[in-house]
């Protein structure tokens, strides 16, 4: 398997090992995201829309506000409102205003959204094994630990 420098046809060395690690992480993330998007394509959803539907399925029956959905997203998404509007047009979610505060909009997954997720579940459940099943469980555990450790300074920066 070629190293990152070979993959991206870089002739000069990386500035430091941290740069190489971050670029490897970004490259791997992109590969995994594209594989996931390819699976999603048949259902006409983006991975972001799928993430929203999964979040809302987990928040049943109450649903969530736009801000609460945004806080639970895997990746930061600046325009949750636009994503929700598209899902609403597809009739995969329903929305209503809060009785006490009309500025607040609650979003719930619809029956159509639940049925779509249910049809997707078997394929989506197999995908992590297809993508990472070649790795030993101990390697995956170590990768998880290292990724969580790598996010630590980012969390501190967000808090300020």
TrEMBL record:
SUPFAM superfamilies: Winged helix' DNA-binding domain. It holds the Pfam family MarR_2. GO terms for biological process: response to stress. GO terms for molecular function: DNA-binding transcription factor activity. Residues 18-152 form the HTH marR-type domain. This is Transcriptional regulator, MarR family.
